[in-house]
DNA sequence: CCCTGATTCGC
DNA sequence: GCGAATCAGG
């Protein structure tokens, strides 16, 4: 596997979201945890609370005997990374063209800390695909969305779940009353927030989200 | 043992 | 640039 732009992009996002190297490696597939770490460092992504820090370590691939890498003291641990939040994965609610209706089983949901519904394990959608950072455009007033929630209508009480994509004429936001404490309404919370499953149990084959990563 | 990220270094 | 090997720490 090679580091395509898409994969690098995904690496950056996942790493930024606080996923561990092996988790990222699993997601990406075809690469090892080491590969991920190596790439992350090469990219300049840096310093996440590492277990090994104080002590100096790692002699290279060759069993070089004594040459304890100096590096006396690495100062400053900047990057006060904002705790790996639950990742408000703004999954593009894309107009699901190829709606894949899986097994219609009775769904049992539990209620999360914020009062939102957790997804049942069975309805875990594979890739948490945060909407690729799209450039915001000046919400264009359109007769079509005159009665919909536009960018300018957003406030801290309405669901900010985007519907459609910025730039598109009918782009707007959900606008329903929010689930207190969250930026989305109850139903969108249950889409945006997922309980993290044990890595082993996670669905591996991530079907590309509607059309896949944005093509520039 | 498992896991983590960091580092080195041959390729 | 890549990533296996190796490290040290939880």
UniProtKB/TrEMBL annotation:
It comes from the Bacteria. Residues 79-105 have a biased composition (Pro residues). It holds the Pfam family GcrA. Residues 42-144, 197-216 are annotated as: Disordered. Gene3D superfamilies: Homeodomain-like. This is GcrA cell cycle regulator. It comes from Rhizorhabdus dicambivorans. The lineage of its organism: Bacteria, Pseudomonadati, Pseudomonadota, Alphaproteobacteria, Sphingomonadales.
């Amino acid at each position: 596997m090679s580091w395509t732009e898409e994969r690098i992009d995904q690496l950056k996002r996942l790493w930024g979201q606080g996923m561990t190297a092996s988790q990222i490696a699993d997601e990406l597939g075809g690469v090892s945890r080491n590969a991920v770490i190596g790439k992350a460092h090469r990219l300049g992504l840096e310093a996440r609370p590492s277990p090994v820090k104080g002590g100096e370590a790692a002699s290279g691939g060759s069993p070089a005997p004594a040459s304890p890498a100096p590096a006396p003291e690495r100062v400053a641990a900047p990057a006060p990374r904002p705790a790996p939040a639950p990742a408000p994965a703004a999954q593009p609610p894309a107009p699901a063209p190829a709606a894949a209706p899986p097994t219609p089983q009775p769904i049992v949901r539990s209620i999360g800390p914020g009062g939102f519904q957790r997804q049942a394990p069975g309805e875990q959608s594979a890739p948490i695909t945060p909407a690729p950072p799209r450039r915001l455009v000046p919400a264009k007033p359109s007769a079509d969305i005159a009665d919909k929630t536009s960018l300018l209508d957003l406030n801290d009480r309405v669901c900010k779940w985007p519907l459609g994509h910025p730039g598109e004429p009918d782009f707007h936001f959900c606008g329903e009353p929010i689930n207190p404490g969250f930026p989305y309404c109850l139903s969108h919370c249950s889409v945006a927030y997922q309980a993290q499953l044990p890595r082993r149990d996670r669905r591996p084959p991530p079907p590309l989200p509607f059309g896949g990563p944005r093509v520039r």
